[in-house]
Amino acid sequence: xxxxxxxxxxxxxxxxxxxxxxxxxxxxxxxxxxxxxxxxxxxxxxxxxxxxxxxxxxxxxxxxxxxxxxxxxxxxxxxxxxxxxxxxxxxxxxxxxxxxxxxxxxxxxxxxxxxxxxxxxxxxxxxxxxxxxxxxxxxxxxxxxxxxxxxxxxxxxxxxxxxxxxxxxxxxxxxxxxxxxxxxxxxxxxxxxxxxxxxxxxxxxxxxxxxxxxxxxxxxxxxxxxxxxxxxxxxxxxxxxxxxxxxxxxxxxxxxxxxxxxxxxxxxxxxxxxxxxxxxxxxxxxxxxxxxxxxxxxxxxxxxxxxxxxxxxxxxxxxxxxxxxxxxxxxxxxxxxxxxxxxxxx
Length: 346
Description:
mainly alpha, 0% strand, globular
């Protein structure tokens, strides 16, 4: 996206978009490392979560040796199968357990908790990122259809499991649903599949980061495979450092979504208004507004989306998520040994 906007609106737009693109991909790559350390604890609690993050996160270093995203195409679809299994397992396991009589479903207790939850909805579409990245970079002209189909596929799968789990456990779902489900071979299979999924998703997210750094250091076109591997390594190490520094999975996801992903909605909307502001540019547009809309209606929709995202997501949600992240860092400390481990001190 940053290269497209750079060609249409200039270098400044390209730089700003690249910064936010890099930020969201880097933060979500680090979050995958946080996730593996958190969920593997439910099948083996002999090591602390921070240790598990270092052990399994180090396996992610293999991604620096993979030349391009083409090598991930098959694995991206394997990752989707893993997500579907885990989501369906959570849903059916929740129904099988039944709902306790004392389960409560209460509303957010404060403005901060409301907007921290709202920040989580901003990243809801991130479940489809692996498919979007793979197909969009393979055939950019088909990005819109790829994005639509991936969202149509992932949304009901994810919502089905979310609604089922919340129906069964209510307010008890405070951290990770694996801690509430009974340990069975099906639960352990779901954990293992999610561990593999995190590795695949880290690889898909980190590849664009590696390419950006390669281009910045002017080694992308170098025939030296090891020179590229060398410049990729600091990106991996930086994401591992962030993962062990902030082991707060849900809060870190909310903060990353509100800080970075908000502007990846705002920037394209603003760019569309600027590029197609004049009647001449509207007439020369390759595609006209959908469903018979006028350009004025489309601009109004874009401006409405910009105001909503800037105020609600970039403003209130960012404030709430950063506030919660700061409180958790104060309560548990940075580099917590075992964040929210039952029977252990952090």
